[in-house]
Amino acid sequence: MNKELKSFLSVGLAFVLIILFTIYMYNNFFKPEPSQITYNNYVFNRKQDLWVTEVQVGNQLITIPLHYSPWETENIPLNGSLHPSFNYGDLYVTFDPDNSNTSIMALAAGELSLNLAQGIQRNLISACSKNITEPCASKPIINCENTDLNVIYLKESSNPGVTLQDRCITIQGQGTDLIKSVDQLLFFWYGVIGN
Fold it and tell me: What is the pTM of this model?
């Protein structure tokens, strides 16, 4: 084989390898996220870093914006059942004031409260699980053990999940897993996913 042919084949082989490497990198690391997905007949559109869909609540069609899609929350366990009286009366949303990531806790509480206010139209009352900070001094001190009221307890934990027990829902996780746990509950509540 002459020198020019070897050089041509080497350059051609290098070019093919570069193209294959580029395709591999694109498919595995740079592939854009879809802007629309369908899950259990619900269409989700990606808008400004949120997944948005519409759900029927009674005779009203409401829009729900969430940070994660149902596929991104599938591994978050949701267990238990609620007492029928949980569906009536005030709903206390409580959290641990001494958690390590207040911005994630605030985002999770905001996403939950916004969706609950428009989706179930209940009176939401902000509470704390302990009275150890100035903002908690003027709030009710509520957790799942000290009351027979309806409670949603946001809790920092390395084990993400949602537990339904009597008149209390505990939503737990750490970092973004806490937000995924909130979204998992909301998908369940709106009927997007089953238990």
Answer: 0.81
d(CA 129, CA 154): 9
Contact 191, 120 (CB under 8 A): no
Helix-helix angle 102-119:176-190, to 10 degrees: 10
- One-letter amino acid of 187: F
Give the C-alpha separation, 135 to 153, whole Å. 17
Domain 75-190 has CATH 1.10.20: no
The DSSP bridge pattern shows strands 91-95 and 124-128 to be: parallel
The residue type of 178 is L
Confidence at residue 25, expressed as pLDDT on a 0 to 100 scale:
60
73 by Cβ neighbours in 10 Å (0-12 / 13-18 / 19+) ranks as: buried
Domain ranges of the chain: 75-190
194: helix, strand or coil: coil
Question: Measured between alpha carbons, how far apart are the two ends of the chain, in Å?
Answer: 68
Other beta carbons within 10 angstroms of residue 32's beta carbon come to: 7
Whether 176 and 104 have beta carbons less than 8 Å apart is answered as yes
Q: Which two tokens stand for residue 3?
A: 């020198």
What band does 1 get if pLDDT is binned at 50, 70 and 90? low
Q: How far is CA 41 from CA 135, 141, 154, in A?
A: 42, 41, 29
CA distance 94 to 97: 9
